[in-house]
Amino acid sequence: MSTENSKFKDFNFAEGELLLINKPYKWTSFDVVGKIRNSLKPLKLKVGHAGTLDPLATGLLIICTGKLTKQIDTFQAEEKEYTGTMILGATTPSFDMETEVDQTFDISQITEEEIYAATKPFIGDIEQYPPAHSAVKVNGERLYVKARLGEEVELRKRFVNVPEFEITRIELPEIDFRIVCSKGTYIRSIISDFGLQLNSGAYLSKLTRTRSGNFLLSNSFEVLELVNYIRSKKEEAKAQEEA
């Protein structure tokens, strides 16, 4: 593959690269890290991501390699943007589609005006509880591990900032939205609380991270596209050594 007519470049993974990846549906963030790390073997490099995406979410995942992993916290602290879809009139224990619907509500009387107005309490500095099914650690153990075992945990509120919460489509029970938020914001929690704001329930059915800081999903690589390119460059290098 030629770098002259493609979006690829001659990477220097050891010195440090920032890679924008479109995380596939049902992949964990660590699946992506592992796939890229394995493609770089036999190089033993540090590879990490700057901000977890849930397995059922897709979109922009920032991967850092080599010396650039020291800057992960900086990239992770950047503002994020998401688009997604919620289902109004039902709830799930995980606030998304990981678990089955456990309660339903009549939404026939809810108007579009009420839906638009319900975003207002979630704009600005807000408090939220992380979902019980989340990667937050309590006493050194992930909440989702405890939740799957049926254990009850005491959830702690966190303060986050949401500069923008926009409703972009209403076709009940589906509602599309766009949210801009600070690091550590749980979109699932916002959606669950949004349902409560309407005296109903809601859960997240689709989520895509479209931006992190100044980095855009539109400039990202597909995982396998990048992995295949890395492997092809290694094969080229090996062939040159043997020639």
TrEMBL record:
<protein>
    <recommendedName>
        <fullName>tRNA pseudouridine synthase B</fullName>
        <ecNumber>5.4.99.25</ecNumber>
    </recommendedName>
</protein>
<dbReference type="GO" id="GO:1990481">
    <property type="term" value="P:mRNA pseudouridine synthesis"/>
</dbReference>
<dbReference type="GO" id="GO:0031119">
    <property type="term" value="P:tRNA pseudouridine synthesis"/>
</dbReference>
<dbReference type="GO" id="GO:0160148">
    <property type="term" value="F:tRNA pseudouridine(55) synthase activity"/>
</dbReference>
<dbReference type="Pfam" id="PF01509">
    <property type="entry name" value="TruB_N"/>
</dbReference>
<comment type="similarity">
    <text>Belongs to the pseudouridine synthase TruB family. Type 1 subfamily.</text>
</comment>
<dbReference type="InterPro" id="IPR002501">
    <property type="entry name" value="PsdUridine_synth_N"/>
</dbReference>
<keyword id="KW-0413">Isomerase</keyword>
<keyword id="KW-0819">tRNA processing</keyword>
<dbReference type="InterPro" id="IPR014780">
    <property type="entry name" value="tRNA_psdUridine_synth_TruB"/>
</dbReference>
<dbReference type="InterPro" id="IPR020103">
    <property type="entry name" value="PsdUridine_synth_cat_dom_sf"/>
</dbReference>
<feature type="active site" description="Nucleophile">
    <location>
        <position position="54"/>
    </location>
</feature>
<comment type="function">
    <text>Responsible for synthesis of pseudouridine from uracil-55 in the psi GC loop of transfer RNAs.</text>
</comment>
<feature type="domain" description="Pseudouridine synthase II N-terminal">
    <location>
        <begin position="46"/>
        <end position="187"/>
    </location>
</feature>
<dbReference type="GO" id="GO:0003723">
    <property type="term" value="F:RNA binding"/>
</dbReference>
